Amino acid sequence: CIMIEVSIENRIGTILLNRPEKRNALNSEMTIQLTQALIRLKEDDTCKVVIIRSSGDAFCAGADLSYLQQLQSNTYEQNLEDSQQLMRMFSTLYHFPKITIAQVEGPALAGGCGLAGLCDFCYATPTSTFGYTEVKIGFIPAIVSVFLTRKIGENHAKQLLLTGEIISAETAYKMNMITGITEADQIRRNTTSIAEK
Which of 29, 43, 105, 134 is catalytic? Predict the structure, then answer.
């Protein structure tokens, strides 16, 4: 099942999170496909900048619930491999040698918030929301905390990671989590224009 669509047009690569029926929630297969998409665009000389966007009404709702339930019955080795897979995805994005832009429309939660936050630029619609909600179900967002602390500082990072609070695009902007807020009917044009620059 193809959960990630990749295209290149006018030297702009686009990664589309395409699992709208699950609010683009991450599972093991989607994490692998996203990592592969990043590697493919990194090695493609016709691509100079990458936009990550989504289909449906959510950017990415974090980890798929059925996937999280499956983790409980996994062995230590399986869970270790799963964590390493997630780390590979975040690390590939963080160290990506070309400019990355997140185009956030709708909620970007947990791993989805991490995905948006690791891009060089992140533009969101006024109604978009952000949050690291893992703590509410007993998970510690340990992998993403490393990157988040560097970006927004320890105080803001602790506030988000330890409370699981969901914040507005405006609050995310004030915390330096995102680059800017763009009206929904203009965000695609805006991110493309920035990519072209």
Answer: 134
Contact of 97 with 143, CB cutoff 8 Å: no
pLDDT-derived band of residue 141, with 50, 70 and 90 as boundaries?
confident
Task: Please compute, for residue 56, the number of CA atoms within 13 A of its CA located in the half-sphere on the CB side.
Answer: 17
List, for residues 17-27, the tens digit of each pLDDT value.
999 999 999 99
Annotated catalytic, 134? yes
Residue whose entry in the numeric block shows the structure tokens 């929301």: 129
Q: What is the pTM of this model?
A: 0.94
pLDDT tens per residue, range 36-90 = 999 999 999 999 999 999 999 999 998 876 666 677 777 878 777 878 898 999 9
Sequence-separated (6 or more) residues with CB below 8 Å from residue 7: 13, 14, 16
Query: Which tokens go with 59?
Result: 């950017």
Phi-psi region of 94 (alpha: psi -120 to 50; beta: other; left: phi over 0): alpha
Task: Name which of 27, 29, 49 is nearest 38 in CA terms.
Answer: 49
- Which uninterrupted H or E stretch holds 100? strand 99-104
Q: Which residue has the tokens 């683009």?
A: 24
